[in-house]
Each structure stands twice: as structure tokens, then as C-alpha cells.
Predict the structure.
Amino acid sequence: MGFIFEGIARSLHLIVTANAEVMQAVAVSLKVGSLSTLIATAISIPSAFCIAGRSFKGKRLLLTVINTLMGLPTVAVGLIVYAFLSRVGPLGRFGLLFTPAAIVIGQVILAVPIITAIGITAIGSVDKRVRETALTLGANAKQASFAVFREGRTAIFAAIIAGFGRVIAEIGVAMMLGGNIKGVTRTMTTAIALETSRGDFSLALAIALILLLIVFSINLIFQRLQGRRS
Amino acid sequence: MLYELLDVKKAYDGRVVLDVPRLAIEENKIYAIVGPNGSGKTTLLRLLALIEPLTGGDILFRGRSIGGSAKELHELRKGVTFVMENPYLFHMSVRNNVLYPLKMRSIAYRSLNPVVERALSRLGISDIAGSGGQSLSAGQKQRVALARAFVSGAGTILLDEPTANIDRENVGRVEESLILLNRERGTSLIFSTHDLAQAYRLADDVVMLIDGRLSGTRPENVFSGIITDRNGTKGMEVAQSVTFELISDKTGPAYISIDPESIIISLGEIASSARNTFSGRIVRVEEEGGRVRVAVNIGVILVVLLTKKSFFSMGMNVGREVWLTFKALSIKVH
């Protein structure tokens, strides 16, 4: 048990002294995670609007597919994107493998189904009268969709945060597509895995604590926003 | 012509809820749509508001078909606004809710501040202009939605039960504001109501719907209530201590109507076999062709139609106490 407490004490020291290695991993994770969430949001939210607002043949099947994709194993995504990006793969000539861009591609694939699926539910649960009220008050289709977005924004932000939570905590894609290069593609999760296997328990613990703190803070801020609205 | 409905049909899951072969609605007038619950009043208003697709037929709005492209439909929608029975207020202040249609129509709303203030004060909601739309009572929400429709600048306003959630003291204020809007700006108003007295008080014309169809007769002396059976005698209490005796197989909620021509009006109580006799005062007299339409308040308003000759020979006038007599058989149960 002693090594756990020792580990915690040292990890706190590493955080307080802003250890360079720890901070680098945090920076890479935040940078890559935010960018993938942003791109995934740009794809998912308009798609969610299209799907939620229309009834068409095969909608139920599409929803089932999207829901299934929410549980995509990260290593499977890593493997598939790896096959495309590796030097002999169809996109090999871009030289993206083991770059932050490769992680972003993989993470966007992970985040899109989650943000889309929760987004569809969020938009679907917005009062039907919002759209109709906007239309009868002179809004065009785009303005009416914006009204729906604004009225359902708390739930839509929840979808985006769920997406961010997924990518910041995943390891499969970051490891397989990023290659865990120190200072470049080493994220918090890959650093934790590496330091644990190397036996530097306290360093791994320090990063894990920060990761937990980040996820906790984001949810806290979100709940605050939600509280203010209700 | 404001609206022309041509063979309009609306069905949900194959069940036809509205079937109107022809209906013309004129511009700058006030129309009331009356009818029992589920008779299609809201559906008709939603169709006229251009937010509900037709199942069959066509509607011409100011001569233009509503079946055009999305862009054309949007252009047509700018001319009409709809106040729902339970209106939705956006998560913003009352004032911003009221300004919303001006923003959507790209109208410089600062110059319209006096218009906004007047609408707020006419509906008695100036003091809550800064509050959040979601925190209001149902009646306040309805008044905010009315103010929002008033300032929208739409030439046609559709209202679904506009006073349904409004407390008694504010009903008069709302009715007055509707009439003012029509008189001052010529805004066409079409509202649904279950209150026939309100329909006649406000509207130039009354349209009656029963089971999704237009009722051919002028909807007069129509009441909704519950038919009860007391020792084999069926009756409907239409107001406190006013119960009409009637003949029907039905019990429970129903709509009844009494043909104004079948009611006998007299200066004193007459002995007859008719089961319904009430006394009341004349509240309104209107000439119509060779006949006279007399409205009598017996606790509810009943309209009686009689010839000019009999009207004048009896020396009746507004305020006079009279007796009304009609048979249980002359009450039609819908």
C-alpha cells in the first residue's frame, strides 16, 4: 500500500511544480482532443439537425447504425485508419501516420457517432412548438433551425461534451496512430500507459489525476451552465 | 379574398380530421371558428397558418396557392402569424420574445419601440417585460404571445382559443385589443373559441365545425355540456340553474343546438306542452331581411328569429322581460 501513497505524494509534487513531461502530455491531449471535438461537432450537429427534423425511409436503421457506432472499439478505429495512413495504404503518400493529424482523424471518427446520436436525441426533445413558433413569426427554415438550436443548446452542449469526454480519455487511436512520440503525439492516456509499464507509477498517477481533474472540471462547468438556465 | 379553401382535406394516419369542400375568408374581417373539442378547429388554424401540410386540395392565400416551393411558402408565411392555445415563449426576456418577429423580418425594431410599448401596455404586461419568458403563468404567456403577434406586422393573425388561459379580469382587455387591432390597422383576425357568446361579441362572421366539417346552419344557440339522465328525463345544464330538457339516446358530453325559428317568444308565460320555458331580458335586436333576430339573456344568450310583423305587434324592445318556450324535440343533439 505504501507505494500508492508515495505515488500520490510525488504525483502532487509533479503537478504543483508543473513538470515539463506532464505538461507536454496534457497540452498535446487538450490540443488534439479539442480539435477533433471541434471538427466532429461541425459534422455531427448539422447531421443531427437533418436526421432529427425529417422522417424518411430507413431512418430507424440509420439511428441503429449510429447508436452501434457509439460503441466503436478505439483500437479497431486505430487499426482501420492505420491501414489507410500507413505508407502502403491509400493515403500513405500524405505522411500522416504518427502525427497529431492522424490522431485527430481517428478521434473524429470516434466522436462523430456519439455527438450525432446524443445530438439527435437533444434536438428531438426540443419542444415541437419552437420550430412552428419561429416559422409563424417570419423565420425562414435556417432561422427556425437556429431557434431550435438555441432552445435546445444545453442538451446539444451535453452531446459535444460527451464527445470530448470520449476522445480525451481514449487510448487506442492515440497509441496506434500517434505512436506515442514524446512532446509530439504523446497524450495523457498514452503517457499513463507508458509510464506504468516503465514502472514510473507516480508520474503515471500524476497524469491520471490531471486527466480526471480536466474531465471533472468540464462537467462541473457544464452543470453550472445547465443550472443557470433552469 | 384572404383565404380560399378548395377541397381541403387533412388526415392523420388515414383518419380524415378535416374536410372542407369550399370556404372563403375575406380580408380585414374578424372570423370566429366554433365547434366542439376535436372538431378540427386547431387543425384548420394550423393549415391557415401554413405550418401543416395538406393531405388533399389547395388553399389560396391572397390568391396564391400554398403548394409552391419552400421559398414561396416562406414568403406567404410572412403575411400571417399564429398564436397557439399554449404558446411557446423562447428562453429570453418577454421584451425579446416580443421583438423576435421584428428581428426575423429584418425590421429596424428600435424605431418600433413605441409600437412594442403600446402592445405591452394594451395587454397589461409592461411590468413583466424584463422577466424571463419561461417563468410566467399560462395566462401571462398567452398575453405575451398576443403582443408578439401584434407587433409582428403580419396582416393576418390566427388565434387558437386566445382567452382560454386568461383570467376573467384580463379577458376584456384581450378582446378589446383584438378589436382595436382590427379597426386601427385592418388586421384580419381568425380565432377559435368554445365560447359562442365571445364569437358573436367579436366576430363579423362565425364558422362552425362539427366532426371536421363545416356546419351548414348558422351556428346559433349552440351549447356544449353534459347530458344527464334524471329519472328518465334527459337534460343539459348549459349555465347555472339553466337546464334544457331534450330527447336523446346519448348521455355524457355533447353539443346541442336550437333552431332560432323554433323558439316561441312571448310577453308572459304561456301554458303549453313544451318542456322548456325560461324568462329573460332582450339584450339585442337586429333586422335581417324581413325578419328580426332577437337575443335574449336567460342566463345564457338565446337567439330567436321572428317575423317583423309579430315583433312590432308585440311592442318588444331591448331590456324588456320576455318568456321563451321551446320543445325538448326542437333541441338537436350533435
Q: What stands out?
A: The mean pLDDT of chain B is 90. The first helix of chain B runs from residue 41 to 48. The helical segments of chain B are 41-48, 70-77, 94-104, 113-122, 138-151, 168-185, 196-202, 308-314. Chain B touches chain A at residues 49, 51, 70, 74, 77-78, 80-82, 84, 86-88, 90-91, 100-101, 104-105, 148, 152, 154 (CB under 8 Å).
